[in-house]
Design brief:
alpha/beta; 7-stranded mixed β-sheet; 226 residues; 4-stranded antiparallel β-sheet; Rossmann fold; 11 strands
Length: 226
């Protein structure tokens, strides 16, 4: 086994470290020592993008927000499910993550940032939603390991009633908010319903369709209309 190599490191607003590692061609991002994501298992993130984009299939010029770039797998799956006319905006807190996805991680998801449909915004998502009043057919939310803060403490705002109401207001009629989670969370599902969204929870294999092993949860929350 090869030794673990550190490829990148950045300090979070909470003073923790977000670190990119590689060992035996497997890439891992950890925050404060805890695994946030790995190139070994990304099927559930891809399935989240496919499920959400399928829900708005037929939209002529869909507008999609990818909240959390990660290793680029979610973005690549969304691009593969969308027409050439789509507009896709990636909102990522860390400029370093964008640099990693243009550098050592670029080939993992076939360089999704090179797609001409993609715009990248480096910003805190909650603040960005306050400043940018554009509405979206799909919002893909994958900035933590579920509906509670992990990457930075202030992400808690996103999963509160106020944060969910703001996300709902940024959906077009019939639009879908998809939230990735390591496990089901009934309290979160109830909060989504309380802000007026229709919710279903999909259990998806961590390694993708056709694979055995652990499952993750994708919340698909739809705004009425459309």
């Amino acid at each position: 086994m090869e030794p673990m190599t550190t490829l990148g490191r950045v300090t979070t607003p909470d003073g923790n470290e977000l670190v990119l590692y590689c060992r035996d061609r497997v890439y891992t991002i950890r925050v404060n020592g805890l695994e946030l994501m790995t190139s070994r298992a990304h099927g559930s993130e891809e399935e989240m993008a496919r499920l959400a984009c399928q829900a708005v299939a037929g939209t002529r010029q869909p507008r999609v927000m990818v909240a959390g770039l990660g290793m680029g797998y979610t973005l690549r799956a969304a691009l593969g499910s969308l027409p050439r006319s789509a507009e896709v905006v990636v909102v990522e807190l860390f400029a370093a993550v964008v640099e990693w996805c243009r550098g050592p991680l670029a080939e993992l998801a076939a360089r999704p940032l090179d797609d001409p449909r993609v715009e990248v915004v480096v910003a805190d998502l909650a603040l960005h939603l306050q400043r940018d009043d554009r509405t979206w057919d799909v919002i893909l939310l994958d900035v933590d390991n579920g509906p509670e803060a992990l990457t930075v403490a202030r992400n808690d705002r996103l999963y509160s009633a106020v944060g969910l109401e703001r996300l709902r207001s940024r959906l077009r009629p019939g639009g879908v908010l998809a939230v990735w989670s390591a496990e089901p969370d009934q309290a979160f599902a109830r909060r989504l319903r309380r802000v007026g969204l229709t919710v279903r929870c999909e259990a998806v294999p961590a390694r993708g369709r056709g694979h055995q092993g652990p499952e993750h949860c994708v919340f698909l929350a739809r705004r009425s209309g459309g």
